[in-house]
Fold this protein.
Amino acid sequence: MDATGRRRALALRAACGLLAGFALLAFVNAVAIAFTVPRPHGDLPLRIAHHLFDATETIGVGAAAAATLGALIALAPLPRWVVLILYAAAATWIQSQSLGFDLWRQALGPMGGRIHVPLYALFLTLTGVGIPALHLIGTGLSRFPRLRLIPVAIAVAAMVVNHLLLPDDYFGLHCSISWGAATLAGASIAPWVESLARGPRARSAFAALASAAVFGIAVPPPNSVRIQLFRQPCALAPWVLATTLWRAPELHAPVSPRTSAWLADRSKLPDVAPTTPPLLPSPPVVVLLTIDAVRADVLEDPANDALFPSLTGLKRRGVRFTRVVAPGAQTATTLTAMFSGRYYSEMRWTEHGVGATRFLYPADDPSPRFPKLLSDHGVQTAIFCSTNFQAGEFGIAPGFREEVMVAEGRQHASAADVVGRMLDRLGRGGNGPLFAYAHLTEPHAPYDRGRKDGTERERYLSEIAVADEQVGRVERLLERKFPNRWLLIVASDHGEAFGEHGGYQHTKTLYDEILRVPLIVRGAGISQRRVDQLVGLMDLGPTLLDLFGVATPATFGGQSLVPLLRGQPAELSRPLFAEARLARALYVPDGLKVIEDQRRKFVEVYDLVRDPGESRNLFDAEPGRSDEALATLRAFFDARTYRANGYSPPFRR
């Protein structure tokens, strides 16, 4: 056999092996789907479609990878070491697309981030070289019939474990493990697969695989199937296709978004004047406390009242809002939206910080934040930072006249320390208007600042109790020190998941276990009442400006809640959105909620009145309502997304 023939034989063997590895991956995925992904509402046809598309897409992506590898070996008259370099280069580029963010974060840690660029390059090169290295290991062991099953067993074990670890996050890591395992297994059985490919039934098998591959790549799955595909973490092929070929679901019929002045650029509109007369006598003293990761249903449940005596007392003596939504699923994005009145996509996020603290923050975004507006109007403003990124330089809440850093390094400060510093400042309050803010980081995973035993949820509740005690300290001082002119606002930045929709903790989804948060207001002139009107944390900025008699910029995406605090009706016309990881949600006052995931390319629509657990997607079942809400969501972000100088909103983990 001449050199050309040998290259073609090697190419056929490598391609057949890699395709077989992906076929094995498809089989393991099918078993994992059957045993780990609950059937959707007993919908057998949807489960069958889930299996069909996952298998054909995995084979399709595997066939594309196998054809590329085979062509690289067969068509290039190059030495093997050159082919290996090209193989590693291609693998490195692919790894940069899936693992790049995670590797960059790891590179920022050592030596305060001073060597992060070369360290990132090293990490990326090692992960890229890892794929051809696994191919060579499998190829080497394939020459020994008694040993070739060892890498197959290792690969299958890796595929199985991949489904069990980190089941709701780190898609890049899952995809890389799947790819590496398929490569190792395929290379080790390549000679056997090649012999089958030369056999008498090879043509029929090839036709079947080719048909499956073409179907998997060329036929985009319907919206309902896409959602199912991403319910299992190792959806390598769906991730590849969603980020390269799939398009966002289309509306069922042409429809116009709801007419609203909020769906356009508002920068040229006049400021919104404060309401009159003022709610509080002058000079007002207002304290805002946000508590990390408190779900709304936790405080609404009477069974927890005894655990949280301070918050329960606030509910019984103040104004309790029962339908409150956060604008984001993580602390930094939610607080930024609350202080700026702009959603994540409306602002410019760039890397800021040093070493392990370097991350995406709005440090360079020029949007006004309400603490600066208050400071400019003569209000004493003070922030007590429980985390390093609450410092003004990070852009979340710049503009406070006084900034007290309680956190040390990356360690979150305890609620007792934060509130202790706040009480010292309030004790020196003086006679002028004062606004003070603090974010308490209890509760937060791993829930180790309350009780040390019990389940995760029990420890979580015990950490809320830790924060509850500090809320009581603030309330007592305000009542004693500032009679008749104080107000205490308590809210949370986001909720917390405990397995609902397959998720845990926060940052990852836009379901209501993450977005529904408590909001309680207690103070002078406030009567006890319950408000069931839909409101959001985006309304807190205009509310606080209103309380101090300061006009609200028209660019703020919320409206003042002061009329509701008085017990008067209020027409809140602004739409309420939320964002996390390039997914967006819109809440409609009648209870409809639409979520569009820009990366996964699917849409979810829920009626929260009939289905508070968000279990029945109405996107196709009620196309009229769904289309209008989705059109409104898209119109808002089409008009308001920050795009200066080619910028586009980045993925923020």
